[in-house]
Structures are given as structure tokens and as C-alpha cells.
Amino acid sequence: MARAGLTTAGLTRAGAELADEVGFEQVTVSELARRCGVSVPSLYSHLASSRDLKTRIALFALEELADRAADAVAGRAGRDALVALGNVYRDYARQHPGRYAAARFRLDPQAAAGSAGARHSRLTRAILRGYRLGEEDQTHAVRLLGGFFHGFVDLELAGGFGHSVPDSQQSWQRSLDALDALLRNWPPAAQGPSGR
Amino acid sequence: MARAGLTTAGLTRAGAELADEVGFEQVTVSELARRCGVSVPSLYSHLASSRDLKTRIALFALEELADRAADAVAGRAGRDALVALGNVYRDYARQHPGRYAAARFRLDPQAAAGSAGARHSRLTRAILRGYRLGEEDQTHAVRLLGGFFHGFVDLELAGGFGHSVPDSQQSWQRSLDALDALLRNWPPAAQGPSGR
DNA sequence: GTAGTTTGCCTAATGCCTTTAGGCAAATGC
DNA sequence: GCATTTGCCTAAAGGCATTAGGCAAACTAC
């Protein structure tokens, strides 16, 4: 039986493409096998399980996204960098909705530890160098931005900002404006316990 | 054959509970049937499909969440309302991770139109009354907050802010502080095209 | 080049999930 | 009470995930 020349990396890439075509949720070992012209069980020579496939696609997407983010923010600072970084996430999600969903896949702790997640965090932290934030507030800001980027993009992709005025592109821009202003005027920590 | 007394609403609630137990992704018609003590095909008297079940659970969760949000913001304004609203989302997600995930399920346009999604939007808009924002900027702020609430909570739940310092509770509080400050000092629209 | 070993492909098989069809009897309506 | 509707069941079919074992290509060592 001639070998089809499959590799784990190749299957991961094919899986990522399939994800963008049919949606990450619809990616199956069976469909991938059909796409590669081999029988379903053959894929188990290269993949441990369906979950293994999804994990690999997720890691691939996170890496790809981090590479784009790194390129986009290189040589930029302050507001320029903030906009560039945010746009990377939004553009990637719109160009590659399946991969973007994959990047949101719940990884097990071990896989997560080896993922590009930390790169994303570092890149976000890097753009904050253009703002005057203390160590701790920088971490808060990283998480705020991370949450906003992901949340806005996810809601938008899900149609949450559907065809209503103003369009979501404007909201995106104004949100980035607002966040830039916020980062330039980050409020000091309150004196006592605040709320909960 | 005695009737088990199943109803669509009852199955939806049982499905929501199952979601919190095993995770929304693991909810199946088969498991629900086992839980109710009936055969799998029996459920098709009350549910159109597995997707119908998930859609119903999603609508249920969105409604439940909107009720909680309405209660929490009633009689509050400004920063107090902002914190209360944000906390509803975060608390719900932590208490009911499966239902929260269900609330994020991609509904088809028809189901989405009849969902509590618009209530959520209105509630967020309502808390913004305590801030001086123009009509359009209010919408931008609704989307920014919606994105942040969802994004932060989702990343947190996924372990994205794992056991590192400062803990995510502090980041949550500081983020709400920051957003309150932002809303009180919302930047005016820039003169010309900004960025993209 | 040859022999032994490893590896990647296949088919068969198993089990789980989703769904449909048709039968039977409980429940409902007149 | 009778006719109709409805909710339960079993049987069946198809799809997906996965394992086991066989065969031959590919690799390694001498």
C-alpha cells in the first residue's frame, strides 16, 4: 500500500483550512480523511484522537496569530501600536473565522503552557510600554485589553452588532480611541476596598 | 405506555442543568434521555433536533442572565450600576459555566431576533444614562462594554489569567474602575479619519 | 544487497450519537 | 363512547470516533 505521505503537521494545516471552510465545530477526523483521500483509521497513525487534532489546530492558530501580531506592532508605540494590535485580532477573526474559533479552544493545562498564549500576553504588554503604567496596572491593562479584543471580535462575528447604526467598524475605531485615552489617563488605585 | 409527563420547557431546564454539570459541549439528546428515564427517540416528541435543544438552552440562559442583570441594575446609576452589571455576567459565568457557554451559542437569525439579546443591550444602555454620552457614543460604549464583559469573563474562565499575580479579581475591579473613569471622560470624536 | 524491524496504510469491528418510521396505548376532544 | 391526537416504545439506518490486526512500504543495520 503506497504511502500517502501524510504528516502530523500537514494534517494540522489541512484541518485549519477545513475549519475556515466549515467552522471549527464541524471539523472531524472523518471529513479530514476524506479530504486527504485516505481511510479514517489511517489518520490515527498521526493523530492521537479527534481532540488531539483540535488541539493542534488551536496551537497552530495561536502561533499564526502571534506571528501576525508581532509583525504588526514591531516598530510602533502608543496609540499606533494599540490600533495595530487590535486590528490583527479583528482582521484574523474576519479572514479566518474557523481558525479564530480554534484559537479559543479550551486547551488542557499542559498544551496551554506550551502555546503561544504567553506570546500574546507579552505583545500586549509591549505596546503598553508607550503608556505610563505601573507594573501591576500594566497587568490589569493587559487583561482588560485582551478581554476587550476577544470579546468585541467574538460578539461582532456572532452578528451581535448586526446591521444597525452606527456600523461596528465605527464602534471599533471609537473603542480603540477610547481605550487609548484611558491608557493615557489610567486612574490611580482607589484608597479603600472598591465594591465587592 | 404511561406518559412520563415530559415537556419541552422541562427538558430545556434539565438540559441547562446538564450543561452546568458536564459542559455545554457535552450536552446530548442521548444523555438527557437517560437523565429523564425515557428512550432517546421519545425526546423527539418535544424537541426537533439536537440543535433545537441547544438553541432552547441558549435562549433560556440569555433570559435568565437578563433577568439577573435587570434586578442588579434596578435603582442604581453610574459607577454603581456599571459594577453591578459587570458582576452579574462574571458571577453567572462562574456559577453556571455551562449555561454561560450556552448563552454564547451561535443562534440562527430568527432565534437570535427573539432572544433576550436586545434586553442585554438595553440594560447596558440604561446604565450609561448615568454618564454624559451622545447617542452615537452611547452605542459605541454599549459595544465596548459588552465586548469587555464577555471577553474578560471568557478568558478568565478559560484559565487565561491563571494563578499569577495579581489575581484576576483585582484585575476585574481595576478594569471596572478604569472603565468608569473612561465613561466619565469619554473622548470626543477625532477630527479626521482615525487609522484604518 | 539482504534481513530484520518499524511504520503507515487498509479492512473489520465495536460502540456511541442522531434521527426516522411505525406500532400501541394513554390522553384529549366532541 | 368513539374518533383523533399525542407521547411513549422498539427497530433500523447512517454518521462519527476509535481499536485491532494484517500487509507491505520504508527504514536501518550489517
Automatic annotation (TrEMBL), chains A, B:
InterPro entries: Homeodomain-like_sf, HTH-type_TetR-like_transc_reg, HTH_TetR, MT1864/Rv1816-like_C, Tet_transcr_reg_TetR-rel_C_sf
Domain HTH tetR-type, residue spans: 5-65
Molecular function GO terms recorded: DNA-binding transcription factor activity; transcription cis-regulatory region binding
Annotated DNA-binding residue span(s): 28-47
Pfam family, one: TetR_C_33
Keyword field: DNA-binding, Transcription, Transcription regulation
PANTHER family linked to this entry: HTH-TYPE TRANSCRIPTIONAL REGULATOR BETI, HTH-TYPE TRANSCRIPTIONAL REGULATOR RUTR
Name of the molecule in the record: Transcriptional regulator, TetR family
